[in-house]
Amino acid sequence: MQTIQANGYSVLFGEKEYETLNDFIATNNYSSLFILVDSHTNELCLLRFLSFLATDKTIEIIEIESGETEKNISTCVEIWSVLTELGADRKTLMLNIGGGVITDIGGFVASTFKRGIDFINIPTTLLAMVDASIGGKNGVDLGNLKNQIGVINVPKTVLIDTEYLSTLPQNEMRSGLAEMLKHGLIFDANYWAQFKDLSQTDFADFDSLIHRSIEIKNEIVMQDPTENGIRKALNFGHTLGHAIESYFLENETKKTLLHGEAIAAGMVLESYISWQKGLLTQEEYNEIKKTINAIFETILFEENDLPPIFDLLIHDKKNEYGKIQFALLDGIGKIKINQEVDNELIIKSFADYKK
């Protein structure tokens, strides 16, 4: 699969690219290597990675617990402390092996330790491959608020090895699929069409679908690295999706949602809003809702769930001057950013979602 050139780094594909990775490490003469994993990737993925890693440099492994609840500043402090205790310096390289939590927090830790050390992402989940590890966003949650603290700083490279996907349960694969669906909806109607009937999708060629998804995100990020304009398109489904995800994370009576599960609901809700604002046809909206609902279970919302979800909306990072900003579909394959939506229409979107 062809290498994708991003802003200041490359996205490498396939087993043979471990040689490229080894050459990069040798050429840059790093003083030591620190590998960040969580408890799952330590058990299921690290051995495969180490079997391809060829270096005489000192290697240290840092393991954290798995899950979104670990993506906080306290975990960063623990990692910074370990780096310090084990003698990491400005010429240390950090290798982040895991899903979106690991690439987000690993990139943030590396970007801030001693004012910045190099890091490389090796994503092991579908979500991290097509979204979290690409584009240079690194950070942590603030309480239950998603990604409130962070920096935009690109890795030295990203290595995509889809063999790691064999370690994932079905719900984690679906979670990543949500971002792939989003990429089609906002940018490429032909790509979206490949997912309209999953029974007709050739998953033998799934690597090419992953490759195209990364291409789409990269094309958008290349135009707007710091999210002042078109990069906001990538937030389609995330304004409501992140609020839903945060609410279900903090509420002990609710089952915690995977990121993609919340974003799938957010895409249906925001597609309804797009339709009601005259940006989508009813047929397009019905197609989107039918396709997403065929893949993801409908989330049960009670009437008393909406006020706290609305309260969380104000913390969305796209908001400006206290106003909630949405990225809405302008037909399938196109997007309109900086769209204001009133609460009455959001309430209607939840009512329609339940149908």
Automatic annotation (TrEMBL):
**Superkingdom of the organism of origin:** Bacteria
Residue ranges constituting the 3-dehydroquinate synthase N-terminal domain according to the UniProt record:
62-174
Q: Name one Pfam family in it.
A: DHQS_C
The chain positions of domain 3-dehydroquinate synthase C-terminal read 176-319
Q: What is its EC number?
A: 4.2.3.4
Which key words are in the record? Answer: Cobalt, Lyase, Metal-binding, NAD, Nucleotide-binding, Zinc
GO function term, MF aspect, one: 3-dehydroquinate synthase activity
| Needed co-factor(s) | Co(2+); NAD(+)
First-tier enzyme category under EC: lyase
UniProt KW Transcription regulation keyword: no
- For this protein, the parts annotated as crossing the membrane are none
Q: Keyword Zinc, does the record have it? A: yes
PANTHER family referenced in this protein's UniProt entry, alphabetically = 3-DEHYDROQUINATE SYNTHASE
Report the protein's function.
Answer: Catalyzes the conversion of 3-deoxy-D-arabino-heptulosonate 7-phosphate (DAHP) to dehydroquinate (DHQ).
Q: What is this protein called?
A: 3-dehydroquinate synthase
User: What is the species of this protein?
Assistant: Flavobacterium buctense
Q: What is the lineage of its organism?
A: Bacteria, Pseudomonadati, Bacteroidota, Flavobacteriia, Flavobacteriales
- What gene makes this protein? aroB
